[in-house]
Design brief:
Helices cover about 30% and strands about 25% of the residues. It is of the alpha/beta class. The strands form two sheets. It has a six-stranded mixed beta sheet with strand order 6-7-8-3-9-10, with helices on both faces. Strands 2-1-4-5 form a four-stranded antiparallel beta sheet, with helices on one face. Helix 3 packs across helix 4. InterPro entries: AAA+_ATPase (IPR003593), ABC_transporter-like_ATP-bd (IPR003439), CP_lyase_PhnL (IPR012701), P-loop_NTPase (IPR027417).
């Protein structure tokens, strides 16, 4: 059974003060087996982020289906499941990394990563160790660990975002340009973490403007212009 199967998905936005409804995307079709990584490519404004936000249900889809093979609930349609079920999936199974950091104020960098693990049921001791491992991997300066993220640079905020999402080892991880404001060394760290998650069985959907970064990493590529999915390589050990 596929981990993620997007069928004839579409999203529209209504501009109420103009009385207009604008179609953002339509007829989106792609699928992934467990442990596969698909990269979505296309020009700015083509709807790439809209797809990720709809899978995460920040946006409510208008048409089509987004089937996800949940560990807790079995096969579900993310376009139609209850809010309670979606909240559970966000907490335990589906991670999302955006270009922007939106966290509780006056919570330190270290505590944010610890909290991500605590809500998964980890003990304080394990959460502390794993949080520090994640922050070290993404080369967050230890001097920043007990600082508030509103003082961080764009690249530091993005690395913290990635640490918070990946430390939970999600079954499905959505990446919205996770290397947009990173230097080359930091991009390599992100790539290493993606490879590590893939080896553990995480399924990934990612948006990258840096095509070279995706080379050799993605199993499939979905082109927003042609509306076609291309198989780049077969994932070893996957089961259909």
């Amino acid at each position: 059974m596929k981990m993620l199967d997007v069928k004839e998905f579409g999203k529209r936005f209504t501009i109420h003060h103009l009385g207009k409804t604008i179609p953002a995307i339509e007829h989106i079709n792609f699928s992934l087996d467990a442990g596969e990584f698909i990269g979505i490519i296309g020009k700015s404004g083509s709807g790439k982020s809209t797809i990720l936000k709809s899978i995460y249900r920040s946006y409510l889809p208008d048409s089509g289906n987004i089937f996800y093979n949940s560990e807790r609930f079995g096969l579900v349609d993310l376009a139609n499941i209850s809010e309670r079920e979606m909240l559970y999936l966000r907490k335990y199974e589906i991670g999302y990394v955006s270009q922007f950091l939106n966290v509780m104020p006056r919570t330190t960098c270290r505590q944010l990563v610890i909290n991500a693990l605590l809500e998964m049921g980890e003990t304080e001791e394990i959460a502390l160790v794993e949080a520090e491992k994640a922050l070290t991997h993404f080369e967050m300066d230890p001097k920043l660990w007990d600082s508030y993220p509103n003082t961080f640079s764009g690249g530091e905020k993005l690395r913290l975002n990635i640490a918070m999402a990946t430390v939970k080892n999600p079954r499905l991880l959505l990446l919205d340009e996770p290397t947009a404001s990173l230097d080359q060394q930091s991009k390599v760290k992100v790539r290493e973490m993606i490879e590590k998650l893939k080896n553990r069985g995480t399924t990934l959907v990612g948006i990258f403007h840096d095509i070279e970064f995706m080379e050799g990493l993605c199993d499939k590529v979905y082109d927003m212009q042609t509306r076609e999915m291309t198989v780049v390589k077969e994932t070893v050990g996957n089961e259909s």
